[in-house]
TrEMBL record:
This is Takeout/JHBP like protein. SMART domains: JHBP. InterPro entries: Haemolymph_juvenile_hormone-bd, To_sf. One of its GO terms (biological process) is circadian rhythm. It comes from Papilio xuthus (Asian swallowtail butterfly). Belongs to the TO family.
Length: 241
């Protein structure tokens, strides 16, 4: 999503820059607005990726495994969620952008209106002498996630040329509304299943405390990879003539 900012925030450059990337004048007093408009124009390319630049797509975002453990020994809940796929990151809205091209820094405030996820869960609940277990599918959605992203870059020498490389992006999420649903809880028990889903949604912040750092890390890694795939194709002089 943000990987193209470097290219679209630059002065007019050589024909080596792909035509689908709209560049902005470096000395434009409204360069931040130009960058925001350019990102919007490029959004369709970002969803599935840009094969000619070896840039990966945003959708779906894979989170891998998420582990959750809560409570004392006599009333403990443990859960593991695998193969988590998130859809919706490409629908981001840029609410604010502050760029510093001299220092290769970009600070974004984004809104992620809706993120839908699915995966496989395994749950184990111990309450005194009662032990309940279940496994199945987990689905859910997060709404109105606020997202702060900081991008910093530095120059690297390769032969006679210099290239811009971004440090790992810093991503911070602030969570909005959420809903979670688990199938086949306790082998499909008609009472325990719905009751547990209600309890989980009433205490969804517990789950969000575990998934948010994983989501932040995954988004940061993806954005960093996308940015560096692009900047590795063009010298610093080509990007900043």
């Amino acid at each position: 999503m943000l990987s193209t900012v470097l290219l679209i925030a630059l002065p007019l450059v050589t024909a080596d820059i792909p035509s689908y990337i709209k560049v902005c004048q470096r000395n434009d007093p409204n360069v931040d607005k130009c960058i925001m408009n350019s990102v919007e124009e490029l959004r369709p390319k970002m969803i599935k990726g840009i094969p000619e630049l070896d840039v990966p797509g945003i959708e779906p975002l894979s989170l891998g495994q998420i582990a959750l453990a809560r409570g004392p020994q006599g009333a403990k809940l443990t859960a593991v969620v695998n193969d988590v796929k998130v859809r919706g990151p490409s629908n981001f809205i840029i609410e604010e952008l502050k760029s510093n091209l001299d220092n290769n820094r970009f600070d974004f405030n984004l809104l992620l209106p809706r993120l839908d996820f699915n995966g496989k869960y395994k749950m184990d609940i111990q309450v005194l002498l009662l032990r309940l277990q279940g496994r199945g599918n987990i689905t859910g959605s997060f709404k109105d996630h606020a997202c702060n992203v900081t991008m910093r870059g530095h120059k690297e020498k390769r032969g006679d040329d210099e290239y811009l490389t971004f440090d790992p992006f810093k991503v911070k999420l602030r969570v909005g509304e959420s809903s979670i649903y688990l199938t086949n809880l306790f082998d499909g028990d008609p009472i325990l299943g719905p009751a547990t889903n209600r309890v989980i949604n009433e205490n969804s912040q517990v789950f969000l405390q575990e998934i948010s750092p994983v989501l932040e890390r995954s988004l940061g890694e993806l954005f960093t990879e996308m940015a560096n795939k692009i900047t590795s194709k063009f010298t610093y002089k080509e990007l900043f003539p």
